[in-house]
Sequence to fold (184 residues):
Amino acid sequence: MQTAMQHFLEQIQAASANELMVYARVGSAEVQLADRTQLPFVQHMTHILVSGAEIEVTFKTHFMNEAADWLLSQKVGKGMSLDHAIDFMKEYSNIIAGKTKTMLEAAGFEVSQSLPFAVRGYNEIFYGSGDKKIVHHTWMIKAGDAALHCSVSIVSRDVGALEKLRQTSYQPKDSGDVGEAELF
Fold:
């Protein structure tokens, strides 16, 4: 039987693939599970936090310039700057955090969301691997010419509240609904 945490992780993973298809206007996105040790040290990383008294969720994407540029070109066409592509990826992270926040609130958690930020230079932000209250989940999304590595770290501050995660439910957008998130 699937645990409440596994259920929640699958909901975030599904949101990340579906929202990428909708936001970037790509026809498909293939998800592959990855081990945390397989996280690449690539050119860029976005980072965003959804946090409350009972739970803390950190969502990250790792990507190369070419991946961000290709995804942005699917949405707005070619000729945009690298800064625009990075903004695109930050907004994508913001969308996933917003979906995560909505799922948590619907399950009874009180949480807030940070602003996304991007780090350059082959960086990674690590969390204490020995802490049993931290759960990590890593996957890769391939969409056309782009590959993103995504990861989520979840800190449980109230183990008893974790069962509420079973109530989380991601509601995918229709692939025809391209959304109108502002980039710039």
Notes: Helices lie at 4-24, 65-76, 82-106.
